[in-house]
Amino acid sequence: MRIILHIDMDSFFTSCEELRRPELKGKPIIVGADPRGGNGRGVVSTASYAAREYGIHSGMPISIAYKKCPNCIFLPVDFELYVPLSQKIMGILRNYSDKVEPASIDEAYLDLSECKDYTEAVKTAEKIKEEIRKIGLSSSVGIGPNKLIAKIASDYQKPDGLTVVRENNAEDFLKPMNVRKIPGIGPKTSEFLKERGIETIRDLQKITKEELKETFGKFGETMYYFSRGIDDSEVITEYETKSYSKEFTFQKDTKSMEMLRDVTLVMAEELSKELETGKKRFKTVTLKIRFSGFETHTASLTLKEYAGGKEEIYATTNKLLQKFLPLEKAVRLIGIKVSNFEEKDPKTIGLARYI
């Protein structure tokens, strides 16, 4: 019997800010980009629960968040504060299981299959939550027979929740939920399903595997199993770094090639430092451009030989940039990714892939 625990910190960034400045506790706080009086670029990283009462949520454009609550307290993202606290939390988790998979800076999976039953797993979860509470933060936990159910369960009773879903109840637990709860089903897919009368997971469970595969390909089969609470993925404790990437969002959309090249040069320098630190050489460069209206395009180029310096990154990026000339629309965001490394990457554990 597998017992998987998923822990998700409650409004982590804003909770860290409240820990540093107790006078902010209970106030509407937004961590993210500078709103610049409603004209800022970027998005909300985290909103406190008080800010969420205004309809503000993570990923919302910061300009819209400002319009919804101009009196909110807007703070910049401060990883120098969040990372040490995250590492402390991950350290607590590793005291209870050898199999811990950080899913992001504020969430992780634990394999508690060594517990004799769910009752023991719940006691472990309560101990974890109490240790985190002593730091001054709160968390929500889901316990289930696999990662999928544990992840959905951790979001079921936020904040400070603890939800247990046993294997024989997993399918019924999912039935009333919107199809968006299934990983991989985004706005477009959910709208496509809605047009066909499929809004809840109960609706989705009525569709055969063959029908889903015919419509969605390989992902259709995944949808079939996920909708029934079936997930065989393991808790992974080690990862290989597959790529390094950098992005830059302009304060004002631009068509200036000089500005685009200046920004890509800076990103090339930053990426070359990461490659040097990781002792890696790359072969593929990918350029990402987002135009006004959020229209996004990518282009890639694989070199004949491996490279590692900023000159190669910059030169390759400029070759890729030529594919988009002349610029018919102004550029909102530009990004560079290097991948296809020369040798097997050193395995990173824990937060290394997020910070």
Tell me about this structure.
This protein has 355 residues and is an alpha+beta fold. It folds into 4 domains: 97 residues, Reverse transcriptase/Diguanylate cyclase domain (Alpha-Beta Plaits), CATH 3.30.70.270; 65 residues, MutS, DNA mismatch repair protein, domain I (3-Layer(aba) Sandwich), CATH 3.40.1170; 52 residues, DNA polymerase, domain 1, CATH 1.10.150.20; 116 residues, Dna Ligase, domain 1 (2-Layer Sandwich). Helices cover 37% and strands 24% of the residues. The chain contains 13 helices and 14 strands. Strands 5-6-1-7-8 form a 5-stranded mixed sheet. A 4-stranded antiparallel sheet has the order 10-13-11-12, covered by helices on one side. Helix 12 packs antiparallel against helix 13. The radius of gyration is 22 Å and the shape is globular.
In short:
The chain is of the alpha+beta class and 355 residues long. It has helices spanning 12-20, 49-52, 62-68, 79-94, 118-135, 147-154, 170-174, 187-194, 201-205, 209-216, 218-226, 257-277, 310-321, and strands spanning 4-9, 29-32, 44-47, 73-75, 100-104, 107-111, 139-144, 162-164, 238-240, 243-254, 282-291, 296-307, 331-339, 347-349. Helix 12 runs antiparallel to helix 13 (310-321).
